[in-house]
Design goal:
It is a single chain. This protein is of the alpha+beta class. It folds into 3 domains: 134 residues, no CATH class; 90 residues, no CATH class; 116 residues, no CATH class. Helices cover 46% and strands 18% of the residues. A 5-stranded antiparallel sheet has the order 4-3-2-5-9. A 4-stranded mixed sheet has the order 1-8-7-6. A hairpin with a 6-residue loop joins strand 3 and strand 4. Helix 8 runs antiparallel to helix 11, helix 9 runs antiparallel to helix 10 and helix 10 packs antiparallel against helix 12. The longest helix is centred in the middle third of the chain and has 25 residues. The chain is globular. The chain starts with a strand and ends with a helix.
């Protein structure tokens, strides 16, 4: 779990005046007990050895009317050991809106065991920095950065194991028969979900692709980068860019994944996915819309896993037919002209125009699997 807690804090102190130990003091918006954490390790080289006091000048969440905020309560009484992450003032961040000014970013990262990654990032803040009480070498910073990356790698691995997609929830509830491909897809979806936060952390760094590949446990990419380096070749453009679900699967499954995603039935479902995304409101989703999206996501995963199953040289045909029969009924409901589809009548017509015949095509495909 990634906890972005900057809007919950008003001020804080980073104290790394003692080598090997970083003390954090954080004041929450609920004005409760001061959060005090002792982290084993040092800040990065720009503020290593210093004491930094800072005030948050960005908008914060409303103060709770009663009691303390649950995330702040967790930090005041952590059940897991706090672990060091990157703490620095040297990250540069560009405004999203023109004229895209660059700002220094106050970035405080730490972990609670492997379960929680806590991140405080501020572009609008006031700070006072003391003179350093000791000096960090470049070698020491490299070692500290590696330890921090190791903590993030462990967090990514834990999050991947704990992740349960809507499709896996279906299976756990007994609403859909399972196959081995469901587990492979769940793992890929977990890594795809967590990757943007990893990419954002290392964006703009010269070693970004190496750090991302290490944290995401992409040994195949690390081996490719090492081969390029040994051959004195320049980096291949976009060689480390992870863009689609197949990029997050195990290397031995990648070609099978791309083949299944090019199946005519899945291509039609992909067109439907684009249309559904365009029809989603910009505001918060209603419970009915959230339920529709959950079921839609489960259908996409189930269909892809079933196509992967049928692409095997030998596979249980009865299982595949049962899954396809259930999928035909679910897709029929997702594009039906009924109140279950939480879009306007015009949008419902568009859904049927794109995928109105998809349930029958899935049923026909299931019929072809008979011995």
């Amino acid at each position: 779990m990634l906890a972005l807690i900057a809007p919950l804090l008003t001020r804080g102190i980073i104290d790394n005046t003692r080598r090997g130990c970083t003390l954090l003091q954080l004041q929450g918006i609920d004005k409760g007990e001061l959060i005090e954490l002792a982290l084993k390790g040092d800040c990065l080289r720009d503020i290593a050895g210093c004491r930094v006091s800072w005030d948050n000048q960005e908008p914060t969440h409303e103060v709770p009317t009663k009691g303390e905020h649950p995330i702040l309560q967790m930090l005041r009484h952590p059940s897991q050991e706090p672990l060091m992450g990157d703490i620095t003032l040297s990250v540069r961040r560009r405004d999203a809106a023109p004229p895209h000014h660059l700002h220094n970013l106050l970035s405080i990262e730490f972990f609670l065991g492997t379960q929680y990654r806590v991140l405080i990032e501020l572009t609008r803040f006031r700070c006072d920095i003391s003179l350093p009480q000791w000096t960090m070498s470049w070698e020491d910073e490299t070692a500290q950065s590696f330890c921090n990356a190791e903590a993030l790698r462990a967090h990514v691995a834990h999050s991947t194991e704990q992740f349960a997609s809507p499709a896996m929830e279906d299976i756990r509830l007994g609403d859909f028969p399972s196959c081995d491909w469901d587990l492979h897809l769940n793992r890929a979806e977990a890594r795809m979900a967590i990757y943007p936060s990893v990419h954002e952390k290392y964006r703009g760094r010269p070693d970004a692709r190496l750090c991302e590949a290490y944290v995401m446990e992409r040994e195949d990419l690390l081996a490719a980068y090492a081969a390029e380096d040994e051959a004195h070749l320049p980096p291949t453009p976009d060689s480390g860019r992870l863009a689609e679900l197949a990029d997050f699967t195990e290397p031995e499954h990648r070609e099978a994944m791309r083949s299944a995603m090019n199946h005519p039935i899945f291509r039609t479902l992909s067109e439907l996915t684009v249309l559904v995304r365009r029809r989603l409101p910009d505001s918060a989703l209603s419970p009915a819309t959230e339920d529709y999206i959950r079921n839609y996501s489960a259908v996409v995963s189930h269909l892809l896993a079933t196509l992967l199953l049928t692409n095997q040289e030998k596979f249980p045909r009865k299982l595949a037919q049962r899954r396809l029969k259930l999928l035909a009924e679910r897709v029929r409901r997702l594009v039906a002209p009924s109140e279950y589809v939480p879009f306007s009548p015009e949008s419902r017509r568009d859904l049927r125009a794109v995928a109105g015949d998809l349930p029958q095509r899935i049923a026909d495909f299931a019929a072809q699997l008979r011995p």
